[in-house]
Prior knowledge:
Elements: H1 3-17, H2 44-58, E1 64-70, E2 77-84, E3 92-94, H3 98-106, E4 110-112, E5 130-138, E6 141-150, H4 158-182
Antiparallel strand pairs: 1-2, 1-6, 2-3, 4-5, 5-6
Amino acid sequence: MTDEEKRELFSSLIHKISPVTPVTPVTPVTHPVKHPVKHPDDNPDKALQIVCELLKEEVPHYDWVGFYLTDPNAERELVLGPFAGAPTEHVRIPFGHGICGQAAERKQTFIVPDVAAETNYLSCSPTVKSEIVLPILKAGEVLGELDIDSHTIDAFSEKDRAFLLKVCYAATRLLQRSLKARKTP
Length: 185
């Protein structure tokens, strides 16, 4: 996919995602949206699931899309939240382990063009060739992260990162509400 094709796709896709999230759209709507997604009741996990499904279905090189949430009941550990794609055995990831754990530990986006070249990669499937992980922060704390795998080597560009940052921004309140619901007294 060329950068121009990505730009056009991401521009239309953000307008499908914005109605799902309980914040003002991250970019102004300048044209009508053909198939707007309805806001999913008041269930943050359902809304995050819809975001995952939209991204996986609409972006050809997004083969697995999921949110990991910082477990409010464990110290420095991510727990798998809503996702779209094949099931994974990696349902809990300590900070610092694998690409997801590194992104949470360092509070930085990781773009991995070839996962086979990474020594700290937690393999989910032999078909995964590249990955992007974006931590979602609020007041400097990691709420969770968006993790996307591709079956294509070097699938992710700066265009993907810029678009996914908007998605993460829009998902911040959903993550906060989901974490609050998961916290045990």
